[in-house]
Amino acid sequence: xxxxxxxxxxxxxxxxxxxxxxxxxxxxxxxxxxxxxxxxxxxxxxxxxxxxxxxxxxxxxxxxxxxxxxxxxxxxxxxxxxxxxxxxxxxxxxxxxxxxxxxxxxxxxxxxxxxxxxxxxxxxxxxxxxxxxxxxxxxxxxxxxxxxxxxxxxxxxxxxxxxxxxxxxxxxxxxxxxxxxxxxxxxxxxxxxxxxxxxxxxxxxxxxxxxxxxxxxxxxxxxxxxxxxxxxxxxxxxxxxxxxxxxxxxxxxxxxxxxxxxxxxxxxxxxxxxxxxxxxxxxxxxxxxxxxxxxxxxxxxxxxxxxxxxxxxxxxxxxxxxx
Amino acid sequence: xxxxxxxxxxxxxxxxxxxxxxxxxxxxxxxxxxxxxxxxxxxxxxxxxxxxxxxxxxxxxxxxxxxxxxx
Lengths: 323, 71
Fold this sequence. Notes:
The complex is a heterodimer.
Chain A: H1 2-15, H2 23-32, H3 37-82, H4 84-94, E1 104-110, H5 120-135, E2 141-147, H6 149-159, E3 163-168, H7 177-190, E4 195-203, E5 209-217, H8 219-228, H9 246-322
Parallel strand pairs in A: 1-2, 1-4, 2-3
Antiparallel strand pairs in A: 4-5
Chain B: H1 10-13, H2 18-30, H3 35-43, E1 49-55, E2 58-59, E3 63-65
Antiparallel strand pairs in B: 1-2, 1-3
Protein name (chain A): F-ATPase gamma subunit
InterPro entries (chain A): ATP_synth_F1_gsu, ATP_synth_F1_gsu_CS
GO molecular function, one term (chain A): proton-transporting ATP synthase activity, rotational mechanism
């Protein structure tokens, strides 16, 4: 709804092209619109006035969008902080191995469905393109899973044949773990992978977002890595309850880890999106305010110039009659 | 109960992943709640998204997953 209103105002702005910066243009406008006493004054100021009205409306809309984004941000931020307990144990247990070299990579890119949120979607797309180049090579296979419409648009031109799944409509209801876990389940059922990399924007503050990648290894890869030592190698020193084998545990863990990390990444990306939207709408309101000031000045100048012209004509006409 | 890796739990033999298993358990626990907490918890269970599989660079028509309970 806000988008439709913005589009309408934009069209109004385009239809009334007024170059209000050059004095020559201004006087030309006065001479050209000589439609009679009332006409001369009304026509040129009318253009500026309609432009001022549409800029003011745009400013109202962007201010409202900023308020909406900031109120939503508070809720999502709380949820994100509460969800930290889900994935921190995983990092402590299994580590994060971004430099692992495997044959089948699946890159999950999290973007937004709606626009007007600054540069976060394009940075995510850039990072995923870079990851693709990094992980491709002979015998290696990289596929994309795209969440969100904006990412789909950004990646479809170059990587049409590598996209495996796209998901949209995620933001119709507030994010919850169940939704993300069903999505994770769908992804796991549909792609084969040795390593999953989730690309998202980490939320650091309202102004700054850090594009980040989290890596999840498939159970077979984790097994291989654990033999190589490092954090994963410590896995054997843990006691496993339940009498299942290590491969079984690793598989359960890998699936659960994917679901939790996807939930965390989706929440952080949602925070970043709302923060970016807040700051970009704030900037647009400020720019609209400045534009309004400039337009008001030029409107007053035009008005005063036309009044002066009228006066001088009347006076010279009166002088011609009497003298 | 200790096995040499041959036996798998019943849910994995039936084709479910760990995620779907835990979701079903969660919805069971949520349905044990009493009324005001029950509807609050039901809010946390809503699912809605549209997923579409791509083949050869073309998307197929999306399937909408919209259930208010877990699968």
